[in-house]
Design goal:
alpha/beta; Cobalt-precorrin-4 Transmethylase, domain 1; Rossmann fold; five-stranded parallel β-sheet; 37% helix
Length: 516
């Protein structure tokens, strides 16, 4: 059998966006992903469909698998012909045991590549506003392991040389040994007033920073119950934090927000959350599929009448996109609907139409079906013919009201909404730890399918699972669906737009900050 290839990939410090492009390419082609505790689990969503995922994480007090066994696992997987991605937090060459893993692979003649990652030693302090070098304070930086027992630390570290180094000292994985480390540095000549910072879970929503001096940092760690994993920075550059800290000043810093939108629609919401300093956790619960059977036949018949409609009303971006896909599939010409006036329910739908070269009427006062009818009801005439390109789960309210006004309504199902939620152990873990701070619902179907997905993953009481999560809905219709499902609705966008929903999240976070 042909030997597989192993990619030893640095996942970066925690924020999933800080992995390299080549690292993502490797994830997309791996048959097996062997990952550790410090690699952001959301990166596993970038793996190709069907890829096997093996957790080999290690903690100070518990190892899922010994390093020797991990080394052998990589060999065995590669010898079976599989492409293997070994996903490691930070950079694999900095205390990542990559030398041992690559060494055994070479002994067995297995091809491998080392894909560097952004090391936590530099990036985590940067996210806390601490540059590890500074022209006036430090022209060098030393990266030191703090993970070993005191006896091994003494063997591994020349404390005299480290203490007398003129630059910044960065200790990795040393929270449990902070008292010993600070004591050794003072014993060998460092001033007790030397600034120290510990940054926990840097670049992620849980990021915390604790600042002190060599003389008091151990006591501060005990009082704050400051837990690993954390990076320890020792040196004058720590003083730059108050001047340069930036992550904590962002409106959504410290918030992990669950996005349930379909993956094809989620990018706008995810981007805004991340731009404002939040961490977006994507769990798309719906997807959109081509209609089948009678629904498709009826849609094709409706498109055959394009030239007969007086009005065409689009109530979603999906409706627009699938409408044009249907035109392309059936070879129809958009010019055949020149007679129809076009209405869009909101700005995103209007923009989608503009991208296809169509101009719609003025926007309704409120961006939902009720507002649409309130704005255009007076100009709709009995006997006029209306086309509604929609999804299969669209509300029946609008066509019903149009018929009451005496209009001939033709509903055309452009797409079907289908479940997309898969089992996600990381999501369940985060919910169990109250580490999901808010969940966003952008349609009634996202509510329905999210609750169903939780039940399918074995959550007996989904409502209780979300009891401590802030629930944010894009509008009143979605909010009513959430309430009907038993959820408490904490935030509702003033307008049914992503921008308005994000603004509500910002206001919520600001209120939290003012109450602390």
């Amino acid at each position: 059998m042909v030997k597989g290839r192993v990619y030893l990939v640095g996942a970066g410090p925690g924020d999933a966006r800080l992995i390299t492009l080549k690292g993502l390419d490797c994830l997309a082609k791996g048959d097996v992903i062997v990952y550790d505790r410090l690699a952001n689990p959301s990166l596993l969503k970038k793996a190709k469909p069907g890829a096997e995922k093996i957790y080999v994480g290690k903690r100070t007090d518990r190892h899922t698998m010994k390093q020797e066994d991990i080394n052998q696992l990589l060999v065995d997987l590669a010898l079976s012909g599989k492409t293997v991605v070994r996903l490691k937090g930070g950079d694999p060459t900095i205390f990542g045991r990559v030398g041992e893993e690559a060494g055994l692979l070479r002994q067995h003649g297995i091809p491998y590549e080392i894909i560097p990652g952004i090391t936590a030693a530099i990036s985590v302090p940067a996210y806390a506003g601490i540059p590890v070098t500074h022209r006036d304070m430090a022209s060098s930086v030393s990266i030191i392991t703090g993970h070993e027992s005191p006896d091994k630390l003494d063997e591994a570290i020349d404390w005299e040389r480290v203490t007398n180094a003129t630059g910044t000292l960065v200790f990795m994985m040393g929270v449990a040994k902070i008292g010993y480390i600070s004591g050794q540095l003072m014993t060998h000549g460092k001033s007790p007033e030397t600034p120290v910072a510990l940054i926990r879970w840097g670049t992620r929503a849980e990021q915390e920073t604790l600042v002190g001096t060599l003389s008091d940092i151990e006591q501060k760690v005990l009082e704050a119950d400051f837990k690993p994993p954390a990076v320890i920075v020792v040196g004058e550059v720590v003083q730059q934090r108050e001047l340069l800290k930036w992550a904590e000043t962002m409106p959504l810093f410290g918030s992990r927000i669950l996005v349930t939108r379909s993956r094809s629609q989620a990018s706008g919401l995810v981007h805004q959350i991340e731009e404002l300093g939040g961490e977006a956790y994507e769990y798309p619960v719906i997807d959109f599929a081509w209609p089948q059977g009678e629904a498709l036949q009826h849609t094709q018949e409706a498109l055959g009448q394009l030239g007969t409609f007086d009005w065409t009303i689009f109530t979603s971006v999906n409706g627009v996109e699938f409408f044009f896909r249907h035109l392309l599939e059936t070879g129809r010409d958009i010019r055949s609907m020149h007679k129809a006036r076009i209405i869009a329910v909101g700005p995103a739908t209007k923009e989608a139409l503009r991208q296809h070269g169509l101009t719609s009427e003025e926007l309704p006062g409120t961006f939902q079906a009720e507002g649409l009818l309130e704005t255009f009801g007076p100009v709709l005439q009995p006997g006029q013919k209306v086309l509604l390109p929609r999804g299969d789960l669209a509300r029946s309210w609008l066509p019903g009201e149009l018929k009451k006004l005496g209009l001939e309504v033709v509903e055309a199902v452009m797409y079907e909404t289908v479940p997309a939620g898969e089992d996600d152990d990381e999501l369940l873990r985060l919910l169990g730890k109250c580490a999901i701070h808010a969940v966003t619902f952008t349609s009634s179907s996202t509510v329905t399918y999210f609750m169903k997905a939780l039940r399918n993953m074995g959550v007996e009481n989904p409502v209780q699972a979300l009891d401590k999560v802030t629930v944010a809905c894009i509008g009143p219709v979605t909010a009513e669906t959430a309430k009907a499902a038993g959820l408490h609705v904490d935030l509702m966008a003033e307008e049914a737009t992503i921008n308005s929903l994000v603004q509500k999240l910002v206001e919520w976070k600001a209120l939290q900050g003012s109450q602390q």
